[in-house]
Automatic annotation (TrEMBL):
PANTHER family: 50S RIBOSOMAL PROTEIN L4, LARGE RIBOSOMAL SUBUNIT PROTEIN UL4M. GO terms for cellular component: ribonucleoprotein complex; ribosome. GO terms for molecular function: rRNA binding; structural constituent of ribosome. Keywords: Ribonucleoprotein, Ribosomal protein, RNA-binding, rRNA-binding. Residues 44-86 are annotated as: Disordered. SUPFAM superfamilies: Ribosomal protein L4 (SSF52166). The keyword Ribosomal protein applies. Residues 59-70 have a biased composition (Basic residues). Belongs to the universal ribosomal protein uL4 family. This is Large ribosomal subunit protein uL4. The gene is rplD. Part of the 50S ribosomal subunit. It comes from Lujinxingia vulgaris. Forms part of the polypeptide exit tunnel. InterPro entries: Ribosomal_uL4, Ribosomal_uL4-like, Ribosomal_uL4_dom_sf.
Length: 216
């Protein structure tokens, strides 16, 4: 299938061939639920913690003698049934992440892209070359593309010397302050962000890299 490629003023500059296996698959909404839950579980900090009786300060002295007081025997004032005592089976630091099959993640991503294309909410621009870092310029560009609430995606380059990654900073920093838009590198494209924004706008290079990755 083919889709029109436009420039940043929304004027047609050509066409690009989209792979059916990436942008033309059936929409499987149940995969969205599974993959988004998996993404959110991985992001959870898991730093919650309550103190057990061994961690609560104090309580080292036996509150009263074992026998002869008429009261129940007690060994410490930091036992769970005492006010100020420790917590039994309270939350402890843990990792909420779990495994998700790679094929299922890939199928969900292709399904989300296919859904956006089917609804006319996926656009391809020739390139994302903004002349300077300016939020106002990003707003004007998204307005020209008739997609104010959009996920914008572009490629990155890897530096051979230190193996660092260089982003399209003019685009990334211009979009950073917008509440209704978000920048992502193509390797970071994910189902949750695709579903969150009304439009997905990819550069031509991003489409080519995405298809190569998802078809391999």
């Amino acid at each position: 299938m083919k889709i029109e490629v436009v420039d940043l003023k929304n004027k047609a500059t050509g066409e690009i061939e989209l792979a059916e296996s990436v942008f033309g698959v059936p929409v499987r909404e149940h995969l969205f639920w599974e993959v988004v839950n998996w993404q959110r579980a991985k992001r959870r900090a898991g730093t919650h913690q309550t103190k057990t009786r061994g961690q609560v300060r104090g309580g080292g002295r036996k509150p009263w003698r074992q026998k002869g007081t008429g009261r129940a025997r007690q060994g410490t004032t930091r036992a769970p049934h005492w006010v100020g005592g420790g917590t039994v089976f309270g939350p402890q630091p843990r990792d909420y992440g779990y495994a998700m099959p790679k094929k299922k993640r890939r199928a969900a991503l292709c399904s989300a892209l296919s859904m956006k294309l089917g609804k006319g909410q996926l656009k391809v621009v020739d390139n994302w070359e903004l002349p300077q870092i300016k939020t106002k310029l990003a707003i004007e560009t998204l307005s020209n593309l008739e997609a104010p609430r959009a996920l914008v995606v572009d490629v990155t380059s890897r530096n051979e010397g230190d193996n660092s990654v260089t982003h399209n900073d003019n685009l990334r920093l211009s979009v950073r302050n917008l509440k209704e838009a978000k920048y992502l590198a193509v390797e970071g494209l994910n189902v949750e962000d695709i579903l969150r924004y009304d439009y997905v706008i990819l550069s031509r290079s991003a489409v080519e890299q995405l298809q190569e990755a998802l078809q391999s």
